[in-house]
Design brief:
single chain; 189 residues; alpha/beta; Rossmann fold; 2 domains; five-stranded parallel β-sheet; four-stranded antiparallel β-sheet; 6 helices
Protein backbone atom coordinates (compact mmCIF):
# COMPACT_ATOMS: atom_id res chain seq x y z
CA UNK A 1 0.00 0.00 0.00
CA UNK A 2 1.32 3.47 -0.87
CA UNK A 3 0.82 6.29 1.62
CA UNK A 4 -0.36 9.58 0.11
CA UNK A 5 0.26 13.03 1.58
CA UNK A 6 -3.49 13.18 2.09
CA UNK A 7 -4.98 11.46 5.11
CA UNK A 8 -5.34 7.71 4.68
CA UNK A 9 -3.73 5.17 2.35
CA UNK A 10 -4.09 5.10 -1.39
CA UNK A 11 -5.47 1.72 -2.51
CA UNK A 12 -4.98 1.94 -6.27
CA UNK A 13 -3.31 4.23 -8.76
CA UNK A 14 -2.64 3.89 -12.46
CA UNK A 15 0.72 2.45 -13.56
CA UNK A 16 1.84 5.96 -14.50
CA UNK A 17 1.09 7.25 -11.03
CA UNK A 18 2.65 4.18 -9.40
CA UNK A 19 5.99 5.02 -11.06
CA UNK A 20 5.99 8.40 -9.36
CA UNK A 21 7.80 8.18 -6.04
CA UNK A 22 6.93 11.67 -4.76
CA UNK A 23 3.66 13.47 -4.00
CA UNK A 24 3.54 17.25 -4.27
CA UNK A 25 1.03 18.77 -1.87
CA UNK A 26 0.06 22.29 -0.89
CA UNK A 27 -0.67 23.33 2.68
CA UNK A 28 -4.12 24.89 2.79
CA UNK A 29 -5.08 27.76 5.12
CA UNK A 30 -6.96 25.33 7.38
CA UNK A 31 -3.82 23.19 7.87
CA UNK A 32 -4.88 20.37 5.56
CA UNK A 33 -2.71 19.16 2.70
CA UNK A 34 -4.10 19.14 -0.84
CA UNK A 35 -2.52 16.70 -3.30
CA UNK A 36 -1.41 18.59 -6.39
CA UNK A 37 0.42 15.95 -8.46
CA UNK A 38 3.12 13.30 -8.44
CA UNK A 39 6.73 13.36 -9.60
CA UNK A 40 9.17 10.60 -10.55
CA UNK A 41 12.15 11.97 -8.65
CA UNK A 42 13.02 14.59 -6.06
CA UNK A 43 14.67 16.97 -8.53
CA UNK A 44 11.53 17.05 -10.70
CA UNK A 45 9.37 17.55 -7.62
CA UNK A 46 11.48 20.50 -6.43
CA UNK A 47 11.45 22.08 -9.92
CA UNK A 48 7.69 21.70 -10.14
CA UNK A 49 7.18 23.24 -6.68
CA UNK A 50 9.24 26.25 -7.76
CA UNK A 51 6.95 26.78 -10.74
CA UNK A 52 3.80 26.25 -8.71
CA UNK A 53 4.96 28.65 -5.99
CA UNK A 54 5.65 31.38 -8.55
CA UNK A 55 1.95 31.50 -9.41
CA UNK A 56 0.44 30.36 -6.12
CA UNK A 57 2.69 31.24 -3.17
CA UNK A 58 2.45 29.24 0.03
CA UNK A 59 3.90 26.16 1.68
CA UNK A 60 4.39 23.01 -0.39
CA UNK A 61 5.21 19.56 0.95
CA UNK A 62 7.04 16.93 -1.08
CA UNK A 63 6.34 13.46 0.32
CA UNK A 64 8.45 10.40 -0.52
CA UNK A 65 5.87 7.64 -0.96
CA UNK A 66 8.39 4.92 -0.11
CA UNK A 67 10.00 6.34 3.05
CA UNK A 68 7.29 8.79 4.15
CA UNK A 69 9.92 11.53 4.42
CA UNK A 70 8.47 15.03 4.02
CA UNK A 71 10.22 18.11 2.69
CA UNK A 72 8.59 21.46 3.34
CA UNK A 73 9.23 24.28 0.87
CA UNK A 74 7.85 27.71 1.71
CA UNK A 75 7.53 30.44 -0.90
CA UNK A 76 9.76 33.39 -0.24
CA UNK A 77 8.17 36.45 1.28
CA UNK A 78 6.32 38.44 -1.34
CA UNK A 79 8.41 41.15 -2.91
CA UNK A 80 6.89 44.63 -3.01
CA UNK A 81 6.73 46.16 -6.49
CA UNK A 82 5.86 49.85 -6.71
CA UNK A 83 4.97 50.93 -10.23
CA UNK A 84 4.40 54.31 -11.78
CA UNK A 85 2.30 53.65 -14.86
CA UNK A 86 1.07 56.76 -16.71
CA UNK A 87 -1.56 54.62 -18.50
CA UNK A 88 -4.26 52.86 -16.49
CA UNK A 89 -4.70 49.89 -18.84
CA UNK A 90 -0.97 49.09 -18.89
CA UNK A 91 -0.75 49.70 -15.14
CA UNK A 92 -3.51 47.18 -14.43
CA UNK A 93 -2.11 44.58 -16.83
CA UNK A 94 1.33 44.72 -15.26
CA UNK A 95 -0.11 44.66 -11.74
CA UNK A 96 -2.00 41.46 -12.56
CA UNK A 97 1.14 39.86 -14.03
CA UNK A 98 3.19 40.76 -10.94
CA UNK A 99 0.52 39.39 -8.63
CA UNK A 100 0.38 36.13 -10.56
CA UNK A 101 4.12 35.84 -10.01
CA UNK A 102 3.62 36.23 -6.27
CA UNK A 103 4.52 39.88 -5.80
CA UNK A 104 2.68 42.49 -3.78
CA UNK A 105 1.94 45.45 -6.06
CA UNK A 106 1.31 49.14 -5.44
CA UNK A 107 0.45 51.24 -8.47
CA UNK A 108 0.12 54.95 -9.13
CA UNK A 109 -0.71 56.83 -12.30
CA UNK A 110 1.89 59.63 -12.33
CA UNK A 111 4.99 61.14 -10.71
CA UNK A 112 3.17 63.38 -8.24
CA UNK A 113 0.97 60.53 -7.02
CA UNK A 114 4.12 58.40 -6.59
CA UNK A 115 5.86 61.06 -4.52
CA UNK A 116 2.79 61.50 -2.30
CA UNK A 117 2.33 57.76 -1.80
CA UNK A 118 6.00 57.15 -1.06
CA UNK A 119 5.99 59.57 1.87
CA UNK A 120 4.10 56.95 3.91
CA UNK A 121 5.53 53.70 2.51
CA UNK A 122 8.46 52.16 4.37
CA UNK A 123 9.47 49.16 2.25
CA UNK A 124 9.70 48.73 -1.49
CA UNK A 125 11.80 46.06 -3.18
CA UNK A 126 11.74 47.37 -6.74
CA UNK A 127 10.33 50.34 -8.64
CA UNK A 128 8.91 50.02 -12.15
CA UNK A 129 8.56 53.13 -14.31
CA UNK A 130 6.15 52.77 -17.23
CA UNK A 131 6.87 53.69 -20.83
CA UNK A 132 3.99 55.92 -21.98
CA UNK A 133 4.91 59.28 -20.45
CA UNK A 134 7.32 61.65 -22.20
CA UNK A 135 10.96 60.72 -21.70
CA UNK A 136 11.68 63.80 -19.57
CA UNK A 137 8.82 62.93 -17.18
CA UNK A 138 10.09 59.38 -16.83
CA UNK A 139 13.70 60.54 -16.39
CA UNK A 140 12.62 62.95 -13.66
CA UNK A 141 10.87 60.11 -11.81
CA UNK A 142 13.86 57.74 -12.08
CA UNK A 143 16.21 60.46 -10.82
CA UNK A 144 13.89 61.25 -7.89
CA UNK A 145 13.60 57.56 -6.97
CA UNK A 146 17.38 57.06 -7.09
CA UNK A 147 17.92 60.16 -4.93
CA UNK A 148 15.29 59.21 -2.33
CA UNK A 149 15.63 55.40 -2.38
CA UNK A 150 19.25 54.78 -3.40
CA UNK A 151 19.27 51.10 -2.36
CA UNK A 152 16.11 50.13 -4.27
CA UNK A 153 16.44 48.97 -7.88
CA UNK A 154 14.60 50.91 -10.57
CA UNK A 155 13.34 49.17 -13.71
CA UNK A 156 12.41 51.41 -16.64
CA UNK A 157 10.15 50.02 -19.34
CA UNK A 158 11.23 51.48 -22.65
CA UNK A 159 9.54 51.52 -26.06
CA UNK A 160 12.76 50.55 -27.88
CA UNK A 161 16.37 49.67 -27.03
CA UNK A 162 17.52 53.06 -28.34
CA UNK A 163 15.47 55.02 -25.75
CA UNK A 164 17.06 53.94 -22.46
CA UNK A 165 16.99 55.93 -19.23
CA UNK A 166 20.62 55.95 -18.04
CA UNK A 167 19.78 56.46 -14.33
CA UNK A 168 17.64 53.31 -14.16
CA UNK A 169 19.24 50.11 -12.91
CA UNK A 170 17.52 48.12 -15.67
CA UNK A 171 16.00 49.17 -19.01
CA UNK A 172 13.63 46.63 -20.49
CA UNK A 173 12.08 46.87 -23.92
CA UNK A 174 8.32 46.83 -23.63
CA UNK A 175 6.73 43.41 -24.25
CA UNK A 176 9.99 41.48 -23.83
CA UNK A 177 8.35 39.58 -20.96
CA UNK A 178 10.98 36.83 -20.64
CA UNK A 179 13.69 39.43 -20.03
CA UNK A 180 11.32 41.43 -17.88
CA UNK A 181 10.45 38.56 -15.53
CA UNK A 182 14.07 37.38 -15.21
CA UNK A 183 15.25 40.91 -14.40
CA UNK A 184 12.40 41.45 -11.97
CA UNK A 185 13.52 38.30 -10.19
CA UNK A 186 17.11 39.56 -10.12
CA UNK A 187 16.09 43.03 -8.95
CA UNK A 188 14.07 41.70 -6.02
CA UNK A 189 16.64 39.17 -4.81
Amino acid sequence: MIQSCLSGPVQFRSLLTMSQQFDICKMENDGNLRLIEGAGDLERARTRVKKLAAFSPGEYIIVNRVTGERISIKSPVKQIVFQIGYDEKDLNSRAELFRRCGHQVMSVADNEAAKRALTSIQNVDVFVVGHTAPEETRKEMVDWLKANFPKVKVVALIPSASRQLPSADFNIVLNDWDEWLSLLSAATS
